[in-house]
């Protein structure tokens, strides 16, 4: 096949064939490398998707950890991961959707994750965070309540009331007014119940303490009203003093006008100086009864006043004073009838006792409370307690009632967590994300396998291509070498048959031919020059002739060149023939 080709074509083929094979091998390598790069790019793309999925998982973990930290500590700085996570999550989901937009199933999973996270925020995270914030508010309110209770709510007002009640108690004790004293004690108890009911409600928030507070409040105003009734019913101090003075005057008058004269008269009767009828007439005198009746009237008036005043001691003392008058009258009668001096002793003792009772009553009235001052004191107590209720107790109770409406503690937060709403949603999120990652893992595994296969194929093709190139190059070189060396061997074998003379004759013949060709060329050149000169003279009219002659001149020059080349070739052949002949095997 190669014998028909020329030597140059054979040499060109021998040089270019390996290059063509190398180029072909390079093209095949490029194709495989391109495929390998594409597969590697898909693997890298899968890694990007997996990285994005891991970022989503990390953000979700930040959401949960941030919320959990806030639920435990109640401090806003723990919410930073939660807040930032919500800001970044949707952006990350959107960017991930762009990465897998050619896969509708993966896009659907990412969209589902976004909706589930939004659902988790609305149904779990936000309610739990709000409840924990309310717990913080509750703790703050409780601390405020403790501080207020420790400082004393309306402490100054209550201290002022305590002083006023102490004064009222002393006034009623000095006045021997047990009803007033009991009412002061009741009012003191009412105020303590007001305080304890308020404190109990503020501390516990239970309505039972509020009921106690309201009952104490009603009892206070009721008892305060009773105190006013006692004060309003108090006897006239000045009038009572005048009664005592009148009673003392009447008693003195009765003694001077009747008792003492009768005692003297009875003494004279014992000595026979007077008649008994005179004594009887004196005893039955209306004037004596009138004086004693006046004293009885005063005693009855005092008893009425003391009964209205609820002054039991004063009533008992007044009754005792009345009995003293009766005993004085009876002992006087006994002495007048019997003349026995023991009745005079009784008379004197009852007289002294009466005077003592009157003195005690006078002292009682002197020590009794001043109506105006006592009324002012109880009014002051009412005013201060009313002010304390409106300015101190009621506002704190209203705050506590408002706090009760939104009151929360950690058990409420725990209840929300234990409901499991957030866990169920997050489990669904993680399952969906796990499906997303598993799908991408499968894709990445496939792409990695493809990349590995492409790499192996490229290696195999490079090795096989290299071997094929070497083998084909060797074959081409072998056949080309035979195609080139075969004719040369034939030439050398043919040359051996020629003798030295034959080469000389050939050389002479070639020399003659060359000489003749050279002479012909010179003649043609000379003719061409002459014709050219003639043609130049007639150039304007013989352009076609000039052109033809130029062509002939050109052909002549070419013939001259060919002759020269042939002469040179013959010289080379002559030199070749003069060299010693080499063995044919070489």
TrEMBL record:
Residues 40-161, 185-302, 325-449 form the CHASE3 domain. Coiled coil: none annotated. InterPro entries: CHASE3 (IPR007891). Keywords: Membrane, Transmembrane, Transmembrane helix. It comes from the Bacteria. Pfam families: CHASE3. The chain crosses the membrane at residues 461-480. This is CHASE3 domain-containing protein. It comes from Candidatus Magnetoglobus multicellularis str. Araruama.
């Amino acid at each position: 096949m190669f014998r028909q080709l020329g030597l140059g074509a054979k040499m060109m083929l021998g040089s270019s064939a390996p290059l063509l094979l190398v180029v072909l091998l390079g093209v095949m390598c490029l194709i495989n490398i391109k495929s390998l790069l594409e597969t590697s790019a898909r693997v890298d793309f899968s890694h990007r998707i997996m990285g994005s999925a891991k970022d989503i998982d990390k953000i979700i973990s930040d959401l949960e950890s941030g919320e959990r930290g806030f639920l435990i500590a109640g401090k806003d700085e723990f919410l930073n991961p939660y807040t930032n996570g919500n800001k970044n999550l949707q952006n990350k989901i959107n960017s991930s959707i762009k990465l897998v937009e050619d896969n509708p199933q993966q896009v659907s999973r990412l969209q589902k994750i976004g909706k589930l996270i939004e659902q988790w925020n609305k149904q779990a995270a936000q309610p739990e965070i709000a409840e924990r914030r309310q717990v913080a508010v509750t703790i703050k309110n409780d601390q405020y309540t403790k501080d207020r209770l420790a400082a004393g709510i309306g402490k100054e007002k209550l201290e002022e009331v305590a002083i006023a009640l102490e004064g009222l108690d002393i006034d009623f004790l000095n006045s021997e007014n047990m009803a007033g004293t009991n009412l002061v004690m009741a009012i003191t108890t009412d105020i303590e119940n007001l305080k304890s009911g308020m404190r109990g409600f503020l501390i516990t928030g239970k309505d039972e303490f509020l009921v106690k507070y309201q009952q104490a409040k009603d009892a206070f105003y009721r008892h305060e009203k009773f105190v006013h009734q006692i004060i309003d019913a108090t006897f006239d101090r000045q009038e009572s003093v005048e009664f005592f003075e009148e009673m003392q005057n009447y008693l003195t008058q009765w003694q001077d006008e009747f008792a003492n004269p009768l005692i003297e008269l009875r003494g004279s009767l014992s000595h026979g100086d007077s008649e008994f009828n005179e004594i009887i007439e004196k005893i039955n005198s209306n004037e004596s009864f009138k004086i004693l009746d006046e004293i009885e009237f005063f005693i009855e008036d005092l008893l009425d006043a003391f009964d209205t005043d609820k002054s039991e001691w004063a009533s008992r003392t007044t009754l005792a004073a009345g009995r003293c008058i009766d005993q004085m009258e009876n002992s006087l009668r006994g002495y007048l009838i019997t003349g026995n001096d023991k009745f005079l002793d009784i008379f004197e003792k009852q007289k002294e006792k009466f005077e003592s009772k009157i003195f005690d009553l006078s002292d009682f009235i002197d020590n009794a409370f001043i109506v105006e001052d006592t009324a002012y004191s109880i009014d002051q107590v009412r005013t201060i307690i009313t002010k304390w209720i409106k300015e101190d107790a009621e506002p704190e109770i209203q705050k506590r009632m408002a706090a009760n409406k939104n009151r929360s503690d950690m058990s409420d937060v725990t209840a929300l967590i234990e409901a499991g709403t957030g866990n169920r949603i997050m489990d669904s999120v993680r399952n969906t994300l796990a499906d997303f990652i598993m799908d991408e893992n499968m894709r990445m595994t496939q792409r990695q396998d493809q990349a590995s296969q492409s790499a192996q194929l490229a290696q195999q093709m490079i090795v096989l291509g290299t071997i094929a190139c070497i083998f084909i190059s060797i074959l081409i070189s072998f056949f080309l070498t035979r195609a080139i060396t075969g004719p040369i061997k034939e030439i050398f074998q043919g040359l051996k048959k020629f003798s030295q003379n034959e080469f000389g004759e050939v050389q002479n013949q070639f020399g003659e031919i060359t000489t003749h060709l050279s002479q012909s060329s010179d003649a043609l050149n000379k003719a061409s020059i002459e014709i050219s000169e003639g043609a130049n003279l007639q150039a304007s009219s013989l352009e076609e002739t000039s052109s033809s002659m130029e062509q002939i001149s050109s052909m002549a020059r070419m013939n001259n060149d060919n002759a020269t080349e042939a002469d040179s070739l013959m010289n080379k052949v002559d030199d070749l023939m003069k060299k010693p002949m080499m063995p044919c095997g070489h």
